[in-house]
Amino acid sequence: MEIGIIGAGMVGRAIGKLAVASGHSVMLSNSRGPQTLFSLSRSIACQVGTADEAAAFGDLVVIAIPLAAYRSIPVETLAGKLVIDTNNYYVERDGNIPELDEGETTTSEMLARHLPRSRIVKAFNAIIMDDLENGGRLPGSSKRRGLPLAGDNSADKAVVAGLYDQFGFDPVDAGLLAEGWRLERGRSVYCVPMDAEHLKDELEKTIR
Ligand SMILES: NC(=O)c1ccc[n+]([C@@H]2O[C@H](COP(=O)([O-])OP(=O)(O)OC[C@H]3O[C@@H](n4cnc5c(N)ncnc54)[C@H](OP(=O)(O)O)[C@@H]3O)[C@@H](O)[C@H]2O)c1
Question: Which of 3.40.50.720, 3.90.1150.10, 3.40.1390.10, 3.40.630.10 would CATH assign to domain 2-205?
Answer without folding.
Answer: 3.40.50.720
